[in-house]
Amino acid sequence: MKQIKSLATAALLFLAIGCDRGKHPGQIGEVAPTFTVKDASHSINLSQYRGKTVVLNFWASWCAPCIEELPSLMALQKAMPNIQVLAVSIDDDDTAYQNFMKEYDVTLLSIRDGSEGANLKFGSIRVPETFAIDKNGIIRRKFISSQQWTSPEIMDFLNKL
Question: Sheet holding 109-112: strands in order across?
Fold first, then answer.
């Protein structure tokens, strides 16, 4: 019984330490890391969007929550043309990425970064993760997992950036 109690205490301590990230991710309030991603069809540099609010979404074609939030991200871009939704796929397989883009008729500005260099600069290792970046290039919020991007709360937040 004493051993079970010790294991339970150790597990709770581990969870408490592991989950304590502070009040917000470390990047909030900092300048977004710059990156350039090139694929077969185009090149994107995050700094080219300075002066515009950016919703930077890291995703993958094999990610169920990414697929779930895709229509909402496209609706956000359509509803708020003053912002730029930038979708960066971490897919290794270009064929899978291209097939996904066609199958889901993706209308977002999207690029495949198979090297995963861009997301790693943001400390993002799971998808979907999304960063709201203001007009001055400052990270204002990090969203983890799928979101309803056209919710009044999110749209109001983005309008204020």
Answer: 109-112, 83-89, 53-59, 129-133, 139-144
In whole angstroms, what is the distance from residue 11 CA to residue 57 CA? 33
Question: Among 34, 53, 86, 77, which residue's Cα sits nearest to residue 157?
Answer: 53
Q: Which CATH class is domain 26-159?
A: alpha beta
Is pLDDT above 50 for 91? yes
Compute the distance between CA of residue 76 and CA of residue 148 in angstroms, rounded to an integer: 9
| Beta-ladder partners of 131 | 56, 142
124-134 tens-digit pLDDT:
989 999 999 99
> Which two tokens mark 16?
């408490």
Residue 111, strand partner residues: 88
* pTM, rounded to two decimals: 0.83
Q: What is the distance in angstroms between the CA of the first residue and the CA of the last residue of the chain?
A: 55
- When pLDDT is averaged across residues 14-21 and rounded to a whole number, the result is 39
- The residues pairing with 84 across neighbouring beta strands, listed in sequence order, are 54
* Separation of alpha carbons 128 and 144, rounded Å: 6
Two structure tokens written together for 17: 């330490």
